[in-house]
Design a protein that fits this description.
The complex is a heterodimer of chains A (about 110) and B (about 170). With about 110 residues, chain A is of the alpha/beta class. Chain A has one helix spanning about 5-30, and strands at about 30-35, 40-45, 45-50, 55-60, 70, 75, 85-90, 95-100, 105-110. The radius of gyration of chain A is 20 Å and the shape is globular.
């Protein structure tokens, strides 16, 4: 007869490890900031965050938009109507960004 | 030569809007005007997608199809929610007729002539729709949600006008 594996103990350890990773990940992720895309404008037009923070763009317009600043590593691709896009600000600096589909739309991302 | 039908269409369009402005269209008529205005530009955009010579004019046409379809979908959803049946009226009719004439005219052109005529028309058209929104449609809308939708989509026309003017500087007038 094969020895019984201590399955419950292994499972407990696994869950504990996974939880620890999740907590560590959440702490590392920083704050979450929201930019609303409304009426072909980024609101607020300038957003200031700390390095490691997350910015979420929420498109409330009936058409697709992008949030793009190659210099900041920001390239959302098309955010569809009622869609969202999340970006972690890893690079410090002041970055002008635009909607590449509608370049009249301009915003600024400040990462401190 | 080519600008005559366009100028005439623009004048007729403006005159119909002005006539409507005196009494002001009701919400059902505004709904019909909005849906028709978008559809007209979708039709011209589809043609530009396939016929334009320059890539950026083709891309602009593609964007017109996409954006105005999006705007129309939200307008149609609101109309359904409000249980409003779009009501035909002289302004919507004039828009439709002008759009058909524009597409018929564009179909006779190709190459640079097509790009120029398409972009010139897009500049005039978006300017007229913005004027109509400001002077007639937004002030006349009674339902708060309909008014809010018009205000929300107005910047789409402004962005398109800005983009079209940039292309016009290159390929148009």
């Amino acid at each position: 007869m094969r020895p019984c594996l201590p399955v419950p103990r292994a499972a407990t350890l696994f869950v504990a490890a996974a939880l620890a990773l999740l907590v560590a990940d959440a702490e590392a992720a920083g704050a979450v900031h929201t930019v609303t895309i409304d009426g072909f404008a980024f609101k607020p037009s300038t957003i200031t965050v700390r390095q490691g923070d997350t910015i979420e763009w929420r498109n409330t317009d009936p058409v697709s938009h992008t949030a793009t600043a190659k210099e900041a590593g920001l390239d959302s691709g098309e955010i569809p109507a009622n869609g969202t896009y999340r970006f972690i600000a890893r690079k410090k600096g002041r970055f002008a960004y635009i909607c590449t589909l509608h370049p009249i739309m301009k915003g600024e991302l400040v990462v401190e | 030569m080519k600008t005559i039908p366009m100028a005439l269409a623009a004048a007729l369009f403006a005159a119909t809007f002005a006539a409507h402005a005196q009494g002001g269209p009701n919400d059902a008529q505004i709904a019909a005007i909005v849906v028709t205005a978008n559809q007209v530009d979708i039709d011209a955009g589809k043609l530009a997608e396939s016929k334009a010579k320059h890539k950026d004019v083709k891309d602009f046409g593609r964007m017109m199809v996409k954006d105005h379809t999006g705007v129309n979908n939200s307008a149609k959803a609101l109309v359904k929610k409000l249980h409003v049946t779009p009501e035909d009226n002289p302004t919507a009719e004039s828009l439709k007729k002008g759009g058909q004439e524009n597409v018929a005219h564009l179909k006779t052109l190709k190459g640079d002539a097509f790009d120029k005529a398409y972009i010139d028309h897009e500049v005039d058209y978006h300017q007229q729709v913005i004027d109509a929104m400001d002077k007639t449609l937004i002030p006349s809308a009674q339902n708060a949600e309909l008014k809010a939708l018009l205000v929300k989509v107005r910047p789409a026309f402004v962005a398109h006008l800005d983009h079209a003017k940039k292309l016009q500087a290159e390929y148009g007038k």
